Every structure is written in structure tokens, then in C-alpha cells.
Recover the amino acids of this structure.
């Protein structure tokens, strides 16, 4: 009976208060709905990681400070299907989308972009004017490169894609991006297709060659950990990330043999809430300071004459899309990918899981 | 005593379960319905198109095979490893028991992502295992991004649950049974196999099925440890819905995964004659568990199993003859080693959090405090704040709804209400979380709840409400309804009875429910990863990003903070318990003196 007499009143009221608080908070939570909104925010869709840090420092931080705009960043820049879903459903989409050759072509063919208002954009400094189109202005050129672990191969790693495919000569796991763009191309190079005869891609042949190496490979979009830890010993990876890993002390080296090169552009997606601000960012991305900062931090090749002209021959010999490296590398054909991506990616996913 | 005939109950409290039932219907069942609908109603492949395509796709079939094989193997290993630990915990007292508990519970309360991180460090090319291999002159082995890594991850994730399910059941086995067996001439191993093991069978069955079902629905482990070589259904659903925007495939795969899990559960109930509640809410099975062995033995008498038992009995007898089983402390020794293996990977996070470089090398080449500094920048503090806020709001709401529902169902006027609403409120525990996450994603997208705090709170209430409900229900069952009768007969209104009798008596359960639902929400990674966006991100989603995008030792810092939080909580709990016990003893002695 002592239990019932010892009924603790404070606790009862505590529970009542907690319940009331809970309901209140839920209502408050539901009321203060998020959404990037319009006004003073800018939504940028990029790729995360150290790339995001570099781009923020080179472009978005100075822009945000100057324009008094808050920049919100996601990592879905290369996710064409997801963005397409957003746009089809009529929801707000990113203001600025970071695109490379192949994704740009897909965005354009699926009509997911807004045309740029050229009357408000000064593009005279762009070196290669042929790269400018209705929806995009080239920002920088970048590459994915053949890398190898120098600890695993102290006497030199594989130098060609055919050698990457030679598992007995260079044993160990390989890494490739978990997307077909670039990966099918290097498989064809490994099979002996010359780099100027790559397109239109012989998809069957590419998968045939990928089959040969599948058991010795992982297909992973973010391979920093695997490469840095030495879990994989050679393969294909974004140059900027490779350089960053090198800086972090990872024992890796890379070359330019059969490196897929792409042109990167900032674009404005269809349901952007703030296209005017997006255009300001694009203008700023073409400034000499911003391009120089990208060059310094990511080592990607500028597109404006004012910075290009200052490059030394030594610098040019180790930058994507310069005359010097173009001898070994090749350009990804965006038009081909725009026409075939949807069908290839279905086959790719199924092949990957099987 | 708590069981009373219905006529003796006060008028039904069933209405109290209504808010929870409504909530589950709108926020959980409806999205699941949308998911099912989406798998058959879509532009590209209307009807069963998505299903027929998936089931003809060799890639998806491999995913299904991986899911079945890897989760079966992990479940078997979980029980094999978990049993000796649970046995030792059940049989020991004091510091040793607390130590084993901490070994097992710390990983349980820290995010699955942190455990995955620990395993990445452990199994990497430069990880501890490989360094040991090379130290003894063996070749490095590929331990990551394959089925092996996934099994290690799954076993490590599910062992705590297995142990927590087994301990109370083992504790209920009457030790005198073993003594009786021994006095009749059985050796320790034989007595164990023929007397002890059968008595714990219901618990073993539940533990096995739980590990199996949780593994089959797991997402982060195969996604981060399996690479493309060991994709499972969970990672497939994530890839399809969240990455490729292929909702039709994702929805169809979710439906298939759910059907498979349901089939396993139905098979389980048919084969073992246990209730499905025992699996999703092992806390409620206490009474059933003690009764079942007796009933089961009666049922089994003369059955074919008899021969199988005598085979294991023979093996046990051989073991006894070898005298190995007579070695004192052999089980505790095994249990200690296993428990340490469960705990140790996490401790690697401490040196990693002070690493000098980004690469996950153990031991680190150099040391720095940069990752600790990084933890206290907006990029990590903001998600931490969101997690705390979402955790507090959803735990308070889930506890309020769940405990009220527990009173409603526990004191329902009609048996039908109880029989229907009990399993209904446990629904969120039946479906794999990755399926729920996909359902939330698809339906929240339509109403603009993705990437909002409200969306997180609603989803987290839905999945934690059953936990609060279970805890509350166990409490309600233990309360003698005479208290309410007395109050009612003294003229107390129902509201008054609720406020002055039931809720105060359930105070302990309310606290426990608040704690458990908060920890669950705070740790929850699957839904968080689906619902996070540019505006709102929780800490687990931030960790996932760091693990998936790029090596980031800041994850190690979060792991250390998690562990510190859990240890403080565990120590506080122990101290509180001891204090309470002491007060109880004192009152008893005082009462004794008074008498």
C-alpha cells in the first residue's frame, strides 16, 4: 500500500508538461518548413569532398561575402536521373549545377537547363569560343587518369590500359568509377581500339573486356579511402582527388595515357529559384582570380586567356586538355553519351550487380 | 496475478491507443502503400513490368542470392558467438558482468556507421589484420569490399541484439536443472546440451530470426563494406531510389524484400509455434519463454528430433570424456575474448581521431588535433544540433503516443481491440528500415517533407513509437489493475486515474522509453541518408557522407564522443541502480526493525 500513498505528483506534472512540450515542438517543427527558398540563398549542386572545399574557397565563399548571399551545397551534381525527377515533379531545383561534358549533354538533351542570358554575361576572355553554347560556358578542363600504387609496384606501375588489364604482371585490385562514362572508353583502349576511333563506342566489346577484369576490380565512385589505404593498386580516378591523396601522403603516381578529358561548366537548372544570382556566379567563375584559385587548388586547366597565357610549358605538360597532354589523352564525346546513356546505364547496373 | 478476466477490468481505455494508431496509419502505413502503388503504377513499366524485369535481371538475382546467403551465414555466426557471451553475462555478477555488458552494449548504442568505420580501419590493406598477417610472414589479403567484409559487418552489428535477447531468457532457466542433470551422472557438456540448451531454445530461435531479418534488411553495411562484389537488397533499394532516381525498380525491390522478410517471419511462427510479437518485441516474450520449453518438450516427445539430440548428446559426452568441459572458466574465457572482439574495433577510433593525415592507416604515421578542431566547425556541429533536436522532439512525441497507446491496448475493453492494435502498432518493427526509408522518400517528396526537420521528426516518431509502446505495454501488464479499481470505486474520474495512478506507476517505463527512442533516433542512419538534403542533415547522414565520399578521420572523433556519451550514461545507470538498491535495502531493514 505504501506504493499508492507515495504517488509522486511532480512526476505526473512532468509527464504532462513533456507531452505538451512535444506537441508544441512538433507544431513548431512543421511550421518552420525548410526549402532553399528564393531571396538570399543560392543552391549549388556539386560533388562534395575536397573538391567542394576548393570550389567554395575559389568561387562561392568570395561571392557569398560580396553578394550577401547564403550558399547551400549538395553533392548530387552528377546525378542526372535524380535531378530529372526533381524537375519533372515541378519542385525547386538547384540554381547552379556543376556539369562535365557527358552530364552537360544529358542535361541538355533532357531539357533540364535554362538558357544563359548572354546579354548579361561577358565571355570575351574565354580562349576557345567554340565551347560556348546556349546553356553553358566552359569553366575548366579536367581529367580522370591512370594511377598506380608506388609501394605495390616499386619498379614502375602499369603505363597503359592494356597493362592495367594484365593482372598477372600487375597483381592486385583495380578501381574504376561506378559509372560507365570513361570506364567503357578505357576498356576499349585496353582492348586495342585506337583513341581516335573510340566513338561511336562498341559497347558489347567494352563489356566483354570489363568482364575480363571484373573479379579483380571494385567499381566505386568515391575511391579515396580505397586508394589511400592501398586497398586498390591501380585504376582510373579523378586527377584532382589523386593529387589530394598524394598531398596526404598516399604512395601513388599517375600518367596521361588514355586519360578521359572533360570540359566542366556551371549551368542553371530549369526550376532554379534564383537564376539571376546563378548568372552572377557563372560570371565570377570566369574571372582570372577564380580560375587561378581553381588551378592552384585542384590543378584543373583554366579556360580564360588571361590565366592560360601565364602557364609555363612545365605546368602545361601536367595539365588536362593542353596541347602537351592531349597527345596521350582523349576528349569524352558528350553527344554520344547524351544519346546512349540511359540504355547503357541500365546494362551497366545489371552487369555490376551480377 | 496481472492476468485478470475481462469482466474484472474497468471500462475500456481503448481510445487512448487511437492517436498512435492514427499516427502509424498516416505516417507509416500510407507511405508503405504509396511504395507498393509506385511499384505497379508508373510511366515506364505499368503493372508488373518492374517485377518481371528485375526477376529476369541476372544482376538483381545475384543481389537476392547475396542477401539470402550473407544474412543466413551472419545469423548463424551471431548466435554461435552471442550465446557464450550471453551465457557468461547471465551467470556472472558484479564488475565482470558489467564489463561484458559494456563490451556488447557500447557498440549497440553507437551508430552502425561508426562500427562500419571501425571495420574499414580493421580490414584495410594497411589495417591491423593485414599488418598482423605480414608480421608473421603471410601475404596481405583482400579483406574489404567483398562478402567477407559484409559478414564481419553484419555479425558485428547484430551480436548486441542477440546477446540482449538471450541474457534474460538464460537467466530464467532454473540452475537446479543443471545440478539435477549432473547429479544423475551427466558431465558438464552433456548436461548443457541435453538440459540447458533445450530450455533456452525459444530464445535462440528468436535471436536467430532477429539477426537474419535485420541482416537481410541492412543497408549501410553492404553499401560501405561490400563494394559492388557483395551488393544486398538494402543497398540495391538505396541505389535505385536515392541515387538513380529509378523509383519503380526501388519500389519493386522493396516489396520483394518485405515479402521475403514476412515469409521468414511466418515460417518462423509456423515452425516454432512462437508468436510474431516475440521477434519484434522480445521484451514481451518473458512469460511465454518460460512456459514454452515444457510445452515443447511434451510436443516433441517421441518425435524424430530425439535422434538428433542424442547425436549432439554423444558429442557432448565425448567432450566430457576428454575432460575439456571440466576446465573451470572455459566459457567465461571464450566469452571474454569474444566480447573484447566486439568492443575493440571501436577503440581504434581513438588513435585514428588524432591521425596526422587523412589516410586511414593504423597506427597513424603522425598525430595531430586537426580532426578534433574540424569536429567543432559548422560542417559537423550543425548536423549534431539537428540530430539532438530531432532526437529530443521525436523521442518525447513517440514516448507520449507509445505509452498512452500501451495503456489503451493493455486496458482495452474488448479483446478484439487488443488483438488487432497490438500487432498493428508493431508494424514499423516488421518491415526493414530501408523499405520504410524508401517509402518515406517517395511519399515525403510529394508533400515537400524531404530535407526538412518536420520530415525527420515524423519518420523517427513512426519507427520509435513501437519501442515506447513495447516498453509501456510491458509496464502496464505488470501493474495490478486493482489500483485502478480502487481509484474508480473511490470516485476518481478516468482522467484522474490515468494521471494519479497509471502514469506515475509507469514513470520508470517512460524514462526508459525516452532514453531508448532518443538513442534510436539519434543513431538512425538509413532514413536520415534518404531524407537529408541541402537544408537539413543529421549527424549519421554526415558520417555516411564522410565515409562514402572521402576518408575523414573526423568520423573517429564522433566515434569517441559517442562512446564517451554511452559510457557516462552506462555508469550513471549503474550508480543509480546501486543507490536505489541501497535505499530499498535501508527501507526494508527499517521496516524490519519497526516490526
Amino acid at each position: 500500500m505504501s506504493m499508492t500513498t507515495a504517488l509522486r505528483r511532480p512526476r505526473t506534472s512532468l509527464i504532462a508538461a513533456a507531452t505538451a512540450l512535444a506537441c508544441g515542438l512538433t507544431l513548431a517543427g512543421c511550421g518552420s518548413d525548410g526549402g532553399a527558398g528564393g531571396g538570399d540563398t543560392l543552391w549549388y549542386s556539386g560533388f562534395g569532398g575536397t573538391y567542394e572545399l576548393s570550389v567554395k574557397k575559389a568561387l562561392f565563399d568570395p561571392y557569398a561575402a560580396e553578394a550577401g548571399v547564403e550558399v547551400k551545397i549538395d553533392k548530387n551534381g552528377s546525378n542526372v536521373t535524380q535531378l530529372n525527377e526533381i524537375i519533372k515533379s515541378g519542385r525547386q531545383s538547384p540554381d547552379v549545377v556543376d556539369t562535365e561534358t557527358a552530364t552537360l549533354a544529358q542535361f541538355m538533351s533532357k531539357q533540364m537547363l535554362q538558357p544563359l542570358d548572354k546579354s548579361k554575361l561577358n565571355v570575351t576572355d574565354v580562349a576557345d569560343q567554340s565551347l560556348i553554347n546556349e546553356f553553358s560556358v566552359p569553366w575548366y578542363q579536367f581529367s580522370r587518369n591512370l594511377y598506380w600504387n608506388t609501394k605495390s609496384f616499386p619498379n614502375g606501375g602499369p603505363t597503359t590500359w592494356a597493362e592495367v588489364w594484365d593482372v598477372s604482371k600487375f597483381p592486385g585490385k583495380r578501381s574504376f568509377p561506378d559509372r560507365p562514362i570513361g570506364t567503357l572508353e578505357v576498356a576499349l583502349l585496353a582492348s586495342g581500339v585506337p583513341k581516335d576511333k573510340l566513338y561511336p563506342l562498341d559497347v558489347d566489346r567494352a563489356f566483354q573486356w570489363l568482364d575480363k577484369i571484373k573479379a579483380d576490380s571494385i567499381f566505386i565512385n568515391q575511391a579515396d579511402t580505397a586508394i589511400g589505404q592501398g586497398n586498390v593498386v591501380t585504376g582510373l580516378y579523378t586527377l584532382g582527388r589523386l593529387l589530394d591523396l598524394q598531398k596526404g601522403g598516399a604512395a601513388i603516381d599517375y600518367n596521361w595515357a588514355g586519360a578521359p578529358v572533360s570540359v566542366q561548366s556551371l549551368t542553371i537548372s530549369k526550376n532554379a529559384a534564383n537564376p539571376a544570382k546563378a548568372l552572377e556566379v557563372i560570371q565570377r567563375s570566369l574571372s582570372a582570380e577564380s580560375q587561378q584559385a581553381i588551378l592552384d587548388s585542384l590543378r584543373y586547366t583554366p579556360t580564360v586567356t588571361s590565366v592560360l597565357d601565364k602557364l609555363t610549358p612545365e605546368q602545361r605538360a601536367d595539365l588536362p586538355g593542353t596541347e602537351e597532354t592531349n597527345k596521350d589523352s582523349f576528349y569524352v564525346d558528350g553527344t554520344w553519351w547524351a544519346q546512349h546513356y540511359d540504355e547503357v546505364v541500365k546494362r551497366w547496373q545489371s552487369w555490376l550487380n551480377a | 496475478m496481472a492476468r485478470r478476466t475481462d469482466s474484472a477490468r474497468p471500462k475500456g481505455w481503448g481510445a487512448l491507443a487511437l492517436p498512435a494508431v492514427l499516427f502509424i496509419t498516416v505516417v507509416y502505413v500510407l507511405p508503405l502503400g504509396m511504395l507498393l502503388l509506385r511499384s505497379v503504377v508508373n510511366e515506364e513499366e505499368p503493372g508488373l513490368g518492374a517485377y518481371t524485369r528485375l526477376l529476369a535481371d541476372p544482376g538483381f538475382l545475384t543481389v537476392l542470392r547475396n542477401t539470402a546467403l550473407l544474412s543466413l551465414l551472419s545469423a548463424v555466426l551471431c548466435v554461435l558467438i552471442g550465446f557464450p557471451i550471453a551465457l557468461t553475462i547471465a551467470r556472472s555478477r558484479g564488475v565482470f558482468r558489467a564489463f561484458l555488458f559494456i563490451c556488447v552494449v557500447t557498440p549497440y548504442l553507437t551508430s552502425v556507421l561508426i562500427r562500419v568505420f571501425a571495420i574499414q580501419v580493421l580490414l584495410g590493406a594497411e589495417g591491423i589484420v593485414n599488418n598482423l598477417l605480414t608480421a608473421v610472414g603471410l601475404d596481405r589479403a583482400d579483406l574489404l569490399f567483398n562478402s567477407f567484409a559484409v559478414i564481419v559487418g553484419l555479425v558485428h552489428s547484430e551480436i548486441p541484439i542477440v546477446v540482449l535477447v538471450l541474457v534474460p531468457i538464460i537467466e530464467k532457466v532454473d540452475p537446479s536443472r543443471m545440478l539435477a542433470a549432473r547429479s544423475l551422472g551427466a558431465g558438464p557438456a552433456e548436461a548443457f546440451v541435453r538440459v540447458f540448451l533445450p530450455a533456452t531454445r525459444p530464445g535462440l530461435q528468436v535471436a536467430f530470426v532477429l539477426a537474419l531479418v535485420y541482416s537481410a534488411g541492412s543497408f549501410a553495411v553492404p553499401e560501405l563494406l561490400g563494394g559492388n562484389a557483395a551488393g544486398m537488397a538494402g543497398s540495391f533499394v538505396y541505389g535505385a531510389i536515392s541515387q538513380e532516381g529509378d523509383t519503380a525498380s526501388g519500389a519493386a525491390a522493396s516489396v520483394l524484400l518485405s515479402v521475403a522478410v514476412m515469409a521468414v517471419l511466418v515460417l518462423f511462427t509456423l515452425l516454432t509455434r512462437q508468436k510474431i510479437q516475440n521477434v519484434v518485441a522480445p521484451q514481451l516474450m518473458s512469460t511465454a519463454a518460460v512456459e514454452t520449453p515444457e510445452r515443447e518438450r511434451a510436443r516433441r516427445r517421441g518425435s524424430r528430433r530425439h535422434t538428433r539430440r542424442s547425436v549432439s548428446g554423444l558429442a557432448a559426452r565425448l567432450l566430457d570424456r576428454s575432460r575439456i568441459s571440466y576446465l573451470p572458466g572455459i566459457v567465461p574465457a571464450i566469452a571474454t575474448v569474444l566480447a573484447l572482439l566486439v568492443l575493440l574495433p571501436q577503440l581504434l577510433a581513438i588513435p585514428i581521431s588524432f591521425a596526422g593525415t587523412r589516410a586511414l592507416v593504423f597506427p597513424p604515421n603522425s598525430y595531430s588535433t586537426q580532426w578534433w578542431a574540424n569536429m567543432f566547425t559548422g560542417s559537423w556541429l550543425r548536423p549534431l544540433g539537428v540530430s539532438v533536436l530531432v532526437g529530443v522532439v521525436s523521442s518525447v512525441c513517440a514516448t507520449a503516443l507509445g505509452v498512452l497507446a500501451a495503456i489503451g491496448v493493455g486496458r482495452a475493453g474488448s479483446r478484439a481491440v487488443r488483438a488487432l492494435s497490438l500487432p498493428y502498432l508493431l508494424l514499423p518493427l516488421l518491415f526493414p528500415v530501408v523499405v520504410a526509408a524508401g517509402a518515406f522518400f517517395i511519399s515525403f517528396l510529394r508533400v515537400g517533407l524531404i530535407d526538412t526537420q518536420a520530415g525527420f521528426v515524423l519518420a523517427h516518431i513512426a519507427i520509435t513509437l513501437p519501442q515506447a509502446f513495447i516498453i509501456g505495454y510491458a509496464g502496464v501488464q505488470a501493474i495490478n489493475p486493482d489500483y485502478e479499481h480502487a481509484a474508480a470505486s473511490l470516485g476518481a474520474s478516468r482522467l484522474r486515474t490515468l494521471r494519479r495512478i497509471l502514469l506515475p506507476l509507469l514513470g520508470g517505463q517512460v524514462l526508459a522509453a525516452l532514453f531508448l527512442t532518443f538513442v534510436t533516433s539519434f543513431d538512425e542512419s538509413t532514413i536520415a541518408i534518404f531524407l537529408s538534403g541541402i537544408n537539413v542533415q543529421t549527424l549519421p547522414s554526415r558520417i555516411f557522407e564522410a565515409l562514402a565520399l572521402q576518408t575523414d578521420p573526423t568520423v573517429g572523433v564522433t566515434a569517441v564522443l559517442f562512446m564517451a556519451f554511452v559510457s557516462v550514461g552506462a555508469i550513471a545507470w549503474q550508480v543509480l541502480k546501486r543507490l536505489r538498491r541501497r535505499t530499498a535495502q535501508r527501507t526494508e531493514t527499517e521496516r524490519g526493525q519497526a516490526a
